[in-house]
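Morning run. Coffee first, then this:
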Amino acid sequence: MTKHLLFAGLLAGLCAWGQPTPGRAQATRRGQTYWYSIQNNAVVQKTGATAKPLKDDVKLPNGSLLKPLSRLVVTAGGEEVSLGDDDMVTASGEIIRVAPAAAAATSAPVAPKPAPAAAKAAPAAAKTAPNVASAPKFSYVPAAPVGGKLKGVVELGASGFNSFIVRIDPQRNWKLEKAEFGNSLVLENMATDDDIRRGLKAYIARMLDYGVSGRDIHFVVSSGAATAAGTKPIVESLKALGYVVHLVTPEQEGALGLRAAVPAAYADKAFLVDMGSANTKIAWQAQGKPVVVSSYGSKYYQQALPDSKVAADIAEKASLVPTAQRKTCFIIGGVPFELAKLARQGQEQFTVLKAPADYAQLEGAKLKAGATIYRALAEATGCQQFVFGWDTNFTIGYLLAQP
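And here it is:
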């Protein structure tokens, strides 16, 4: 069975409860998606944050029988499936296995919150941390949402599956509530069918359990992942099932990152850099509209490109940023996350990176490549304040753009 078919089979079940369709009215109650899970050692029906303990057997649409008192699902074929503490059953009868050990191995810690665009841990190649002195503070505090609604997004990125849950109010103030990171190795086309199944099951299940409605879960494919051969069957399967998959170009990614990472108060005096594995986006506001240029990403070393060529292209693109907006740069991405970790003081939401020279002792090809890009940005713009936002990612910009 091909990866395409396996993934289609998984998402056929997910779609039954992720986005109700005609004929699936039984999958919603009062407009909210519901599912079954284990809570306090009992089977409950979950609707958002509400849990209703079950005692009576439930006949499921796919022919299975849920037996809550014995924590069993008897399939239409007569097989008895025992439910573990982390397992879930969709409204249509799909059993979602979320093994605790696997979940712990693939989830990023909630506190301190990692950068959404970054991998969940420092690359193994970064064996020796440079001696980076304390960086100056960036005291800006964004407005917190008042009330608002939970929305979620699953990002298929160049280096893995990531998911974010954000609370957004009508004024578009937002707060990152939860972030989780995977490592699907999609760009290298090394993801297995099991990687894909486990990743999406875990992310979507946790979003629903957190209280996000199935209608407010979105799929976004980053510009880097969109070019990978392993991404195509996933996207095709999702589209064939009626799921909306949003593929973004580097320009769109930069514009969305600008929307999420640069506060309104800095719109006319700052610019954005999103340093991804596949490309680096540089963006700024001009007369109320985003301007985006892109260059090489931090994995350019895989193409055997000389540092000088990459630095020259980065410098050329960065020199387009208007002089009046070069004082502050809000920077996100995998390598900036690693650089910020070395300068972070406590649990502040924003960390000012040290000067490029202070990261001269980094080890590992990706970190060294990212440091080359960072140095070229600083030299071309003269910017003295590169601010890393721990809670920011371009996909949050995508959520902010939704109605």
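The chain has ten helices and 21 strands. Good start to the day.
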